[in-house]
Amino acid sequence: MKQTKKIYAAAVLVAVSIFVLTGCGKKAAESLDTEIGKVSYDVPQAQAVTNDGEEPDETQEEGNEMDQDAEINMIEIRSYSDSEKERMKTLQESYQNETAKPKNMIQEVDSADDVTDGTLCYIVSTGQFYLPDRELTDEEMLEIIDCNFRIALSTNHKTQKDWDDINLKERAEFEERVKAAGGITEEEAIEIAKKTMEEDIGEKAKGLKLAAPGEYGWKAYLWDITDWEEYNAKGGELGWSIQFNNVDDVEDYDDLFSYECMVDAMNGSICGANTHQGFIDGETVWYEH
Prior knowledge:
Blueprint: E1 8-11, E2 13-14, E3 17-18, H1 26-31, H2 58-68, E4 76-77, H3 82-96, E5 108-109, E6 121-123, E7 128-130, H4 138-156, H5 160-180, H6 186-201, E8 209-210, E9 221-224, E10 238-245, E11 257-264, E12 270-277, E13 283-287
Parallel strand pairs: 1-4, 5-6
Antiparallel strand pairs: 1-7, 2-3, 6-7, 8-10, 9-10, 10-11, 11-12, 12-13
């Protein structure tokens, strides 16, 4: 009888469907012919992989374990803690907004037998993450998010040009709607946000610079905010997201300071504004307008 090896893992959940895929870290990156673009995906949920998406009973678990890896007799699933779930949501938003990226790609191993205790990794043969039996760091969570992102990109079979076309088409449609409604331009939104920032935080504004996305020559993102709870209290449709920060002038994450302002693209009113001190776990302060 083989010795039972317990693996604490979180199944990969991408775009509401569960996939067992070939990889997402350095090995997968080498096979991709493009850099990653923008794509939507859900926060990975901690649950076992079954055909119908339900958590398996003991009999199902035994069958799945035998099928997935002959070297493993049991896979034990560790759920994300409540704090990890909340941090994951925040980090995912930061990743998609390109304000946070992992320093490294997630480590990949071929099977559960290759897992190093205490080291996060992606198990290629089962399509699962091994989660250390402790609270995950921000870097580890970003590696998981990045891995899911690459899986989603590979699954959707879209190249960087495909994503560029999608992003540029959406932006053009949004800008046309703004123009047709007599709304404000990107430059006007930046000036409104800058003035609002100076009113909200006073002298602190002097140390902050515009944090332009850098994509396609954009200086700000133009978002559909109809379902964005934080910014839709006044019933807006489209919003210019303007951010200022001191990221170029600090070395310690704790010293990071940013101001973000969502300006209604149709009428120039302020949909919402906040400051954030520190990295992900820092303090966020919202300002009423």
